[in-house]
Amino acid sequence: MATSIGMLTLLGLSSALKASLRRGVNSRRGAKLLSDRCASRGTRSSLYEHFREGYSDKAELDMARVCGETDVVVAELENRKGDLRGADVSDIVLVWQKLQELRQDITSLEDQKHKISARVKELVYGMPQLLQPLLSQLEEFRRAKQEGRDIRLRLSQLYPRELELEEEHYRQALRLPNRTHPNVPVGDESQASVVEMVGQKREFDFKAKGHLEIGEGLDMIRQRRLAHVSGHRSYYLRGAGARLQIALQNFALDLLQRRVRPAVGNALSGALMWIYSYGCTRHEGCGMQPHAHKSQIYSLDPSRFSDLNLAGTGEVGIAGYFMDHAVNCRDLPVRTVCSSTCYRAETDTGREPWGLYRVHHFNKVEMFGVTANESGDESSQLLEEFVSIQKEIFSALELHYRVLDMPTQELGLPAFRKYDIEAWMPGRGSYGELSSASNCTDYQSRRLNILYEKEGGGLCYAHTVNATACAIPRTIIAILETHQNKDGTVRVPGALQPYLGMDIIEKPKYAPLKYIGPNQPNRPARPVVK
Fold this sequence. Notes:
The protein has 530 residues and is an alpha+beta fold. The chain has 2 domains: 167 residues, Serine-tRNA synthetase, tRNA binding domain (Helix Hairpins, Orthogonal Bundle), CATH 1.10.287.40; 239 residues, Bira Bifunctional Protein, Domain 2 (BirA Bifunctional Protein, domain 2, 2-Layer Sandwich). Helix content is 35%, strand content 18%. The protein contains 14 helices and 20 strands. The strands form 6 sheets. Strands 3-13-14-15-18-12-11-6 form an 8-stranded mixed sheet. Strands 7-9-8 form a 3-stranded antiparallel sheet. Strand 16 and strand 17 form a beta hairpin. It is elongated, with a radius of gyration of 29 Å. It starts with 6 loop residues before the first strand and ends in a 25-residue tail after the last strand. The N terminus is likely disordered.
């Protein structure tokens, strides 16, 4: 993984090294690191630094649309959350135009330099060997040499300016959101559109309990008295709780394996790939802003692992798998399945301080797809397919849920359109989000260089789609609260019984652990040391 590299000082470098840096070659010799300069001018972009050091090709953002449809881009930006506003788009366009003009000047000067160099070679090789000492007296030769020196001097001034403008461009433009689907509701969370309601709320002849009370009664969940072990929002799953987590993961993976099948014969209707995603990865390439949302991100020790974070979702790891690679068009769409542990700091919210709804780490089964962009509908079709899989999972778990078309302020930067599925949680007395599914079109692929190879040759930017198949803790909440019984036991949905090996979760026969720590009345006497 790339190390964070700051802005490179070009003063004193050879013209060859400057040219190599301009081409994106990873040249460190003679370069001074100035990583603080980026931060002093605003939010830095570790993804741009990754490009500049040659670890990956530079992102090809859709600046033609930003410049050609500026009013539309501004209107869509104003409807979303984020630190950029409409006035920033004009600045982004201006910087881009300056960069393009500068690059045209550089290209013109480089062409002139090559022509002059070729002319000088002609004069040198065309002069007889005996007359070579007189070459410097030739007016045309002296004029060409001087023009060459002037051009090199001018280029030595333009290359650093190009790098500065390029950095400024990426630092701002990488924060622009994706386009917005025209049917997405405008507004905050309250404007979400209910697409579908599935099942009915369960009626109870007793007062429904919350999942934490149920789990503690069955010795499945322990969350109290853990501050000295692993801090707030941590938890243990024990016995049936641990088995339920594994059962949900295996059930989701098995269903996905059955759901995605190659077509009969030689034609392949998309590949299914299994990936186990490790936690350390870059978020910015997926459109997430770790520097802007530090309260949600666990960052590793920067003195040892610069710009590495613990992944908050399996999506970023799978996207990194495809980074700088091209998929053959015959294999599209590629559907990947990932089982991973996700880490979220959750330090900026006092909501849900207890229970499994908001926790620091949890297991999740994630779907990620790569599609072509020929008709323009491929990624939308895959999004609908992923949502149908989510519905199949939650229906099999006998949950009541609703599908929401999320409004503009609930779309992250990469999402063109996003659906959330919320299950009814009787103990909470409200719906709670179980999963989401997002069509990111070419937003991520342009940043990560995810492409597909067409039949006749040539590369095109792919579209990416991601969706949660099963976020384990929240699904456990919905199961415990929906299928609880009056006597404190929990009925296991039929789809999970083969995985769990039981149809009822009952209170275990053993005596639960007894707390003997400090800060309690009637604390038992400590053992006598002999």
